[in-house]
Amino acid sequence: MTKFNRRGFLATSGGAAVATLAMPAISFGQAKPKVVVVGGGAGGATAARYLAKDSKGAIDVTLIEASKRYYTCFFSNLYLGGFRDYESIGHGYDRLAVNHGVNVIHDWASGVDSAAKTVTLASGTKVPYDRLVLSPGIDMKYDSVEGYSVEAQDSMPHGWKSGSQVQLIKAQVEAMKEGGTFVMVPPPNPYRCPPGPYERVSMIAHILKKKNPKAKIIVLDQKPKFSKQGLFMEGWQNHYPGMIEWIGSDTHGGIKNVNPETLEIETDFDTFKADAASLVPAQKAGTITAAAGVTDGDWAPIVPATMASKADENIHVLGDASVASAMPKSGFSANSQAKVAANAIRGALTDSKVFPARFSNTCWSLIDTDDGVKVGANYKAGEEKIEVVDKFISKTGEDSALRKATYEESEGWYAGIAADMFS
Amino acid sequence: MKSWGGTIRKSSKTVLLSTVVAGIFLGLFASNGLALAPPKSFKKCVACHQVGEDAKNTVGPQLNALEERPIGSVPGYKYSKALKKFAQENDIWTVNTLGEFLKKPRKYIRGTKMSFAGLKKESERTELVNWLLHTAEKKADTSADQLLGASAAAQQADPEYGQYLSGECVTCHRPGGAEGIPNINGWESRNFIHVLYEYKQEVRKNPVMVTVAKRLGDEEIAALAAYFASIEAE
Predict the structure, then answer these.
(1) Is the ipTM value over 0.90, yes or no?
(2) Which residues in chain B have their CB less than 8 angstroms from residue A378's CB?
């Protein structure tokens, strides 16, 4: 790597640099501008794909992702409920390499040297960048609940990163004794996928209604209220009468501690004994963001117009790891933010046109067979924050044909976003 | 369901070119050779419906470009209240909804004008639905003065802007379409503009699309229409 970047060089060398625009590689005797993307989920895979696809080879794009096969968090609840088989939510990275020329490295990014502009891999290799995109998703704050730990996640799985943890929940629900109790502990705000815990409850109820109809589900929420609450409450009443009891933090007074051996959960109000349980702890940005020095507290603040870190203009942070409110932490949001970032990065590195940031998000949830609901909004970049332009939510009391259409639409969306990330 | 639709589409592509006999079959088609011969079961429809370049509304509406046009949107045809209500909740016909409708029309849309008992045999329905949605005449019979969004159609379209804006669409609309969400690649731009305007004016109610369309100005709509028209449908 040379010391100057193209931007700085262009600014100081005036007219002579114009000719270099077309063929920077030859003029500089160095490689094309390099973008390194860390994390191959909805944010990272989309960013890598759009950067490579739209720059038509003018940018050297490297995607660093530890997993060779990626299981989406979105729709993992549908796997749990038996509406999807496990492999249908798994995706590989081959087409990003073959169709768009993305260099895919399956390794763990362990550090960032933002002064030298390199990413260090677990294997020891250093990968240089001109721009870095961090889209690492979330890490669990295991110690946010007393008694919970990395080890405890085998008996009280969080299942909040898809994969084997969700398989574990499914197995534990199916093995529950007749008439047993499942306890779900949703996380405090802010967290990945706001309606997710309640869709999970719905899907578990869907299984239990068939296989273990006397079983009960208790939801000990770490919040006083939750996303799409009216819609879920109505749906639970309609589809699973008497099965699900939701207790907000206002009522139980807070989770005091959990015992992963006995599956006991103690609140100010009472101690609950579960036959199977899922606990989702508080969350923070994936650790690489802290290593890169772009976090403020648990999350990474960003400049809304470009998704660049407020701490380092050469590092962009996407998706769950970023402070992108008013957007929720969702796969759809990350995918949307990735396109804004890709447009801004291309503009900075190759002088392509930069258009104003536009974001959108929709979260679909399935309550029972053919009963889908949705909430969504579109957004623009404000000075400090991403701001809502317009929003919508499904209504209670909708007829079954509309709910079925909403569910089918969610299936279509899954096919769409999967193609937008991996094809 | 998906792969099945995909296979039909793929095979239709290869057959499309070689089938010029379609025009002669049943005497319904203009002999441009673009339409694939209809399945036998379509004979049950022809007393009331026409397909092809010169197709007109008769007892029922013409059935051109069924996949690309909003439900209940053929100009000059007077639809039942029941179908209009159905159209507010369902944007376009899908393999699922059209299949259910043709199984027992008056049960699926109570109050429909279509006095047809229904196609009991699933294999017949599958064949007919796929033909109607994927291979029957594609060009919508809508003339420019009946379309909404003339102000957008008059705009100069910036393809680069269209490509950028398309990012918002393709999170859901995949090439070739999928269950519940239609393909939008290769749509004629006047149809594309018309449909977005219907969402803008909430003639069509899907809140996701209403929210998307309301934010789009004429410049954006024109750019998107030009962009998607330029991509070949799968």
Answers:
(1) no
(2) 168, 211-212, 215
